[in-house]
Amino acid sequence: MRNPFKAAVPALALLTALTACGEPTPGGTTSAPGTSTPAATSTTGTTKPATGTTKPATGTTKPAAGTAKAACAVGDLEVTIAAQGTGEKDEKGMVVVTNTGAKNCTVKGWMTIALHNAADEAVDVPTEKVNEPGPADTVEIKAGGSAFAGIKWTQCGKADASCAVGNTIRWSLDGSGKGAVAELEGFPAAEKSGITMKALKVGTFQPSNQGVTAW
Fold first, then answer.
1. Which residues are within 8 A (CB) of 119 and not within 5 positions of it... i.e. 6 or more apart?
2. Beta pairing partners, 197
3. Residue 17: exposed, middle, or buried by beta-carbon count in 10 A (0-12, 13-18, 19+)?
4. Which pairing describes strands 168-172 and 138-141: parallel, antiparallel, or unpaired?
């Protein structure tokens, strides 16, 4: 008589083997028993840089409007030159430039100083601009305030052919010898035509009178 248990054993073994291999997954793949397929992780947008964070600020170096002061006009200034009365051959003078206008203004570098005679003609004097008491710079003169400069000239005898003789001094800011008349203090009276110059040195504009003639 045929034993029915012998046929059942191979069928049971085949069923066990298929179960151990796991069920087929869609697409033909097979997942191991007891494991799960991890869910796909989206990385979309995780590395996108923040927008606008590195944009440089604009206009940070632009100077404020209206901060620059206008250059002084001759008509807004008055100039006084006071001789120091050194009693030496080389005489010194302090130049005081006063802003009589309603607004602050600026001067830069040197002014022009020109000796004139009784006929109001410019007299030729060898002139040198010097960086005394310091380098040339822009100086602001407030309304009602003053800037300063020093001058030094070599006096001479009128009989000397190289001696320039005059009675007034004119000044300008544009290099012109025909400028405005300076008020003089400590100089010979105009009617004497007693201002003599063999050579002239002009110092720089300064915001203070400190040291402007100490050279």
1. none
2. 164
3. exposed
4. unpaired
pLDDT level of residue 92 (50, 70, 90 thresholds): very high
Contact (CB, 8 A) for 204 and 134: yes
Residue 63 has pLDDT above 60, yes or no: no
Beta bridge partners of 129: 202
Domains of the chain, CATH where assigned: 74-202 (2.60.40)
- H/E element holding 9? helix 4-21
* Cα(156)–Cα(166) distance, integer angstroms: 12
Phi first, then psi, for residue 122 (nearest 5°) are: -65, 135
Q: What is the pLDDT of residue 186?
A: 96
Tokens 């100083």, residue located: 113
Contact of 78 with 100, CB cutoff 8 Å: yes
What distance in Å separates the CA atoms of residue 201 and residue 151, rounded to the nearest whole number?
6
Residue 69: C-alpha distances to residues 73, 76, 107, 147, 208 (Å): 12, 14, 10, 15, 19
